[in-house]
């Protein structure tokens, strides 16, 4: 009989033992359901014991759909204090995890600061740190050594990073598919583009794929969850479902199974730009090919022509995706494709994804989502603003919008024309 994941990974087992009762109570799930799902690889426990002050969480249906916020510096916008404020804004808005995607400045200091400030799991893309060192030295990314990447991964694991995006499924063949002329947007993943260049220039296989066992050994020791990245995700709707995308997805499924059998947890990263009518089949296809591992998606964005509103395009795809099987939503903000998000963008992005999660869970009929809807309906029927506030995904927004008329029983849109009050008062008079 094959060994279970928890028997192979003592760090994960100890972490689960310490937090299982709390997590089960918060999620409304039986502890055995969680344990079985983690062993099966359909749920992951995000938590590196080296991350001090961490509150581990689980990802994977039937647990609550989780939302991630991406923050981090860029060469054109690099301010540590700004990133600290964005981290705070993301957590206050209800993000379940945060990813540090910094590519400028003192990356170790930024990462360690985020780890110290965040009780939520923190993710990274180690390839970015390696790329920064090489590109800032005016060298070609093709000069990277495999040891450069694995040493960075091990360092970040020691620092306490909880999950890492690693583009292990991006093969040399996939990179060749990605740059073919019939792919409109080519390779839009930053990490994927760097690895593709390295492979194509050196005519060598992806070191993350070639030396996958080395990666497993590091991640098992620290319980770092592998977020198997979609380096060939479609960057335009017309590229969705092409050979490049599916070649990588097939690889990801095989790698996730291999890692699970060796005691390492995996999530699968999903598509970016996918037309709305293809979202369901995309999600179902990915879940099938990756053994129902937790699926972590960016959007999906259902149209390409809404810069400034990509958080809305992504929320539409995210809601459909959740109902089709998505487990984890990575937010998009109004700044997507344009600039680095500010605090307001971060908050808007988190809330858009939280709305998408609620919409999807209502469609699935999950008890927590349906109960929230019922409480809101009860509050609206009785004009009970306290109940409406308790049910609201963003109670602060409710307070802000209502402030000027907060002493009124009705809202400021209808006033004495309130439909609920008009018929309620008539029934009272007849009684």
Automatic annotation (TrEMBL):
InterPro entries: ThiC/Bza_core_dom, ThiC/BzaA/B. It is an enzyme of class 4 (lyase). Keywords: 4Fe-4S, Iron, Iron-sulfur, Lyase, Metal-binding, S-adenosyl-L-methionine, Zinc. GO terms for biological process: thiamine biosynthetic process. Its cofactor is [4Fe-4S] cluster. Pfam families: ThiC_Rad_SAM (PF01964). Gene3D superfamilies: Radical SAM ThiC family, central domain. Its EC number is 4.1.99.17. One of its GO terms (molecular function) is phosphomethylpyrimidine synthase activity. This is Phosphomethylpyrimidine synthase. It comes from Candidatus Desulfovibrio intestinavium. The gene is thiC.
């Amino acid at each position: 009989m094959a060994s279970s994941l928890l028997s192979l990974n003592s760090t994960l087992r100890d972490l689960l033992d310490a937090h299982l009762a709390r997590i089960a109570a918060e999620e409304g799930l039986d502890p055995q359901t969680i344990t079985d799902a983690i062993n099966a690889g359909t749920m992951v426990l995000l938590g590196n014991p080296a991350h001090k002050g961490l509150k581990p969480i689980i990802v994977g249906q039937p647990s609550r759909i989780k939302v991630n916020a991406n923050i981090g510096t860029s060469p054109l916008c690099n301010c540590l204090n700004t990133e600290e404020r964005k981290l705070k804004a993301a957590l206050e808005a209800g993000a379940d995890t945060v990813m540090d995607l910094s590519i400028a400045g003192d990356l170790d200091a930024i990462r360690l600061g985020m780890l110290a400030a965040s009780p939520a799991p923190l993710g990274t893309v180690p390839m970015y740190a390696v790329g920064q060192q090489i590109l800032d030295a005016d060298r070609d990314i093709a000069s990277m050594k495999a040891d450069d990447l694995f040493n960075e991964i091990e360092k970040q694991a020691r620092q306490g990073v909880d999950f890492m995006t690693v583009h292990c499924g991006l093969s040399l063949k996939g990179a060749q598919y990605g740059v073919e002329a019939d792919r409109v947007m080519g390779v839009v993943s930053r990490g994927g583009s760097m690895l593709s260049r390295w492979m194509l220039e050196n005519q060598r296989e992806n070191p993350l794929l070639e030396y996958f066992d080395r990666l497993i050994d590091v991640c098992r020791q620290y319980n770092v969850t592998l977020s198997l990245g979609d380096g060939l995700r479609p960057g335009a709707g017309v590229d969705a479902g092409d050979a490049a995308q599916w070649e990588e997805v097939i690889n990801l499924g095989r790698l996730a199974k291999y890692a699970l059998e060796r005691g390492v947890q995996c999530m699968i990263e999903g598509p970016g730009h996918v037309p709305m009518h293809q979202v369901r089949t995309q999600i179902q296809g990915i879940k099938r090919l990756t053994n129902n591992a937790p699926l972590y998606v960016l959007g999906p964005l259902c149209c390409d022509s809404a810069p400034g509103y990509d958080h809305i395009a992504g929320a539409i795809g995210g809601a459909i995706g959740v109902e089709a099987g998505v487990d984890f939503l990575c937010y998009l903000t109004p700044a997507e494709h344009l600039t680095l998000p500010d605090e307001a963008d971060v908050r808007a992005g988190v809330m858009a994804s939280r709305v998408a999660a609620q919409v999807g869970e209502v469609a699935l009929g999950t008890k927590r989502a349906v109960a929230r809807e019922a409480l809101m309906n009860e509050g609206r029927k009785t004009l009970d603003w306290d109940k409406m506030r308790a049910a609201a995904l963003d109670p602060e927004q409710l307070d802000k919008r209502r402030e000027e008329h907060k002493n009124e029983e009705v809202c400021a849109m209808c006033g004495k024309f309130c439909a609920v009050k008009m018929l309620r008062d008539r029934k009272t008079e007849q009684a």
